[in-house]
Write a structure and sequence with these properties.
The complex is a heterodimer.
Chain A: H1 4-14, H2 43-56
Chain B: H1 6-33, E1 52-62, E2 65-78, E3 82-95, H2 98-103, E4 107-122, E5 125-136, E6 139-152, E7 157-172, E8 175-196, E9 199-212, E10 220-223, E11 226-229, E12 235-248, E13 256-267, E14 272-284, E15 288-299, E16 325-337, E17 346-364, E18 371-386
Antiparallel strand pairs in B: 1-2, 1-18, 2-3, 3-4, 4-5, 5-6, 6-7, 7-8, 8-9, 9-12, 10-11, 12-13, 13-14, 14-15, 15-16, 16-17, 17-18
The chains are: A mainly alpha, B mainly beta.
Chain lengths: 73, 387
């Protein structure tokens, strides 16, 4: 079985196996560019909300907001 | 040199063909993964953030704490090569929270924070760096961050990595200078994926490590009913993973979208938490955009948290941020876009309100003997201009 893996891998490559081409073309992304499709629209609003949660909740991180440093006790 | 036998020549041709196909397959794989950057140049380069100015008035009022103040942000690009940003944030805090009124005296103080950032774009990669300082009379925190976002797969996937290093000086009123230090290391990563022309998915992860003084010199714990200074561990490491998705629902409700997110959190203090947020956005007329959201948060207590400890332990805390509690929020936001401005200019007025409710399972209000709970109001008023 172990010997079959390189053969299988070579066979996959030999058949031109690859990840699919990007299926949403740049000209099809008009809807995605609309403000209603943004996770965060204004930096200051998000920063204020994050600070409120960070000083009152035990959980933190993975907010998607760049930077860091709570500066609070 | 002798010619190879026919059988070998056949094998050689087959091997060459196999290698050629393998090379073609590998090239196609790299082409797919790197969005064409390897073979045919970048299909869609990343762009610098827009030039903008934001001015915010923020207010939090709940549980005896009032915190409000202005915040400003200015971002400007230079020579289309770099984008510089500066932020100023003020929190004027009036604190008469339950901790304070049951063990100390109400106080007022002001926290001011500055942040300076620089962004630049190299082909499909956005590099961002920032430094910040937050200072209160008894607490100063300095931080430096570096973030990298790279578009791959024809711009359909954005991969990001980030790091923040912070160092805090911890003081105590009445004692000159600082009494201790705290250090923090934050490592984050994320992937945002375009799934369809109307659907985005994002996964973020972050690990945070802390060492040093990780409590408050003013907060008291309770052991056998008596108030004692809290004793927290001097290290903590946490992990968080967040899954977010947003979908354009214009086919069901004109010019609208729905989003949902869930974050799972766990750390070495044995806190486990889940955060769920669901929201929707909808344009109303030509100038208004309305958002609504609900957020549910719940967490389990830290291992060393106790409302009233019945044994002596190395670590003890009655910080309700480390207790078992649930928080529910409902909020709305209205954005008004000023009409009839010249092309390239955009001015928005934004107002948002959020009602938060906290219910604690193992934190007693010492004034009444009941489980503690409170509500809070969060208000934001903002002007945002892009130019």
């Amino acid at each position: 079985m172990r010997a079959a893996l390189p053969i299988l891998a070579a066979a996959l490559l030999a058949t031109g196996c690859a990840v699919p081409e990007p299926w949403v073309k740049p000209y099809e992304r008009e809807k995605l560019a609309d403000p209603i499709m943004q996770f965060q629209r204004t930096a200051l609003n998000e920063k204020h909300r994050e600070h409120i949660h960070q000083v009152r909740e035990g959980a933190r991180g993975a907010t998607g907001v760049q930077g860091g440093g709570c500066g609070c006790n | 040199m002798r010619a190879a036998p026919p059988a070998c020549r056949g094998a050689g041709v087959a091997a060459t063909e196999l290698l050629r196909r393998a090379a073609t397959g590998l090239k196609a794989l790299l082409h797919g993964l790197l969005g064409g950057a390897v073979a045919s140049g970048a299909a869609s380069a990343a762009t610098l953030p827009e030039d903008k100015a934001e001015a915010l008035y923020h207010s939090y009022d709940g549980g005896g704490v009032k915190a409000n103040g202005p915040a400003l942000l200015v971002r400007k690009s230079l020579f289309d090569k770099v984008s510089l940003s500066a932020q100023y944030y003020v929190d004027a805090v009036s604190n008469a929270s339950i901790d304070v009124v049951t063990t100390a005296s109400p106080f007022k103080e002001t926290r001011k924070a500055y942040e300076f950032g620089i962004d630049t774009v190299v082909r499909d990669t956005t590099l961002s760096g920032s430094v910040s300082r937050s200072s209160e009379p008894d607490y100063v925190a300095d931080a430096a961050s570096l973030d990298v976002a790279h578009e791959i797969y024809g711009g359909m996937t954005t991969f990001s990595l980030g790091f923040t290093r912070s160092a805090d000086d911890v003081g105590k009123k009445g004692i000159p200078g600082f009494i201790d230090k705290a250090n923090h290391w934050q490592y984050r990563t994320g992937i945002t994926q375009i799934l369809t022309s109307r659907w985005l998915l994002s996964i973020n992860g972050e690990a945070v490590s802390d060492s040093g003084y990780l409590g408050s010199p003013y907060r008291a714990a309770r052991v056998f009913g008596a108030a004692v200074p809290e004793r927290n561990p001097r290290t903590r490491t946490s992990r968080a993973i967040k899954l977010r998705t947003i979908y354009d629902t214009s086919t069901l409700v004109p010019r609208s979208s729905l989003r949902a997110e869930y974050r799972r959190y766990w750390d070495t203090w044995d806190i486990k938490a889940g955060t769920t947020e669901i929201g929707g956005s909808k344009y109303v007329g030509e100038s208004f955009l309305v958002d609504a959201m609900v957020r549910l948060y719940s967490q389990d207590k830290a291992l060393f948290y106790s409302d009233n400890a019945q044994s002596e332990t190395t670590y003890i805390s009655r910080n309700r941020q480390l207790s078992t509690f649930k928080s529910t929020s409902f909020g709305g936001k209205v954005t008004y876009t000023y009409p009839r401005l010249p092309a390239g200019y955009d001015v928005k007025l934004i107002g948002s309100y959020e009602r938060k409710s906290f219910k604690f399972s193992d934190f007693t209000d010492l004034r009444t003997g009941n489980k503690f709970s409170y509500n809070a109001d969060v208000l934001q008023l903002m002007v945002s201009a892009t130019f």
